Fold this protein.
Amino acid sequence: MSLDGNTSRLTFVQSLWAMEDLPWTALDEQLAQLVGAGYRGYAVDLGARQAPTSADLAAAAQGTGLSATVMAFVPDEKVLGDALRYAAAIGARDLVLCAQHYTLDLDEAAALTARWHGIAARDGVRLELETHRNTMTNDLRFTAALADRLPEDIDLAIDLSHYVVGAEIPAEPTAEIEDRVAALLRHGGSVQGRVASRCQVQVPLHHASSEPWIALARRWWTDAFVQILRRRPTGDIVFLTELGTTPYAMTDAAGVQVSDRWAEAALLRSWAALAFESAILECSE
């Protein structure tokens, strides 16, 4: 797609954690499904129950043409080093980091993020700080203030589902909440796909009760793409489908998941594509 003479492309990446408890159990089968569905990459969450070893993943992914992203919960530089070594082993050049360092000091949080970003950069890895519950970015208002203290080259991996459920954001957010979200989106580098309500982190997309939350998520995805395009109108823009298994996935009384998460991931992709098209048009006006 074109924007002011430059090119940009929406790139779909699937979380391997989101492949857990789907019909394809073998790693090579999962990756083949991604290739067949048109995904351009996969993301491996090092904290997932079925996270593969780097050797197994590198072997299974060889020849698929899929790009690799590492996702990690990181409390300190030792664990960061472990994540970077895993990334090197599978040829990943992107690391989405959930910082398990808890502070109310914005300057401390900004300095830590910048230091970890620099460590990753020295290894040739691009680090994004994820917005995630029970991490340094747990609080919407704190993170909005933190984002404005980060250097321009540090991006956020935008997952607003954590704020919707964590802060019990209504389907029609207040102006103050919209301002905080906008502050995050101005620093976004990628977008993660999941729809939350103020009481559930991952709602079934076929339920009528989910419609207001779907509308909110889709609007914010469009806004996120607009901001990313304005800052970086060239290159790939990642949309990560990340519909997790239990306990994220809702179940019935027998413990059976109520949604087809693979089909819902395809639906999220279609909505993201429409949001991206809308963002392109808005940026070209």
Observations:
- Residues 1-6 have pLDDT under 50 and may be disordered.
- The two ends are 15 Å apart (CA to CA).
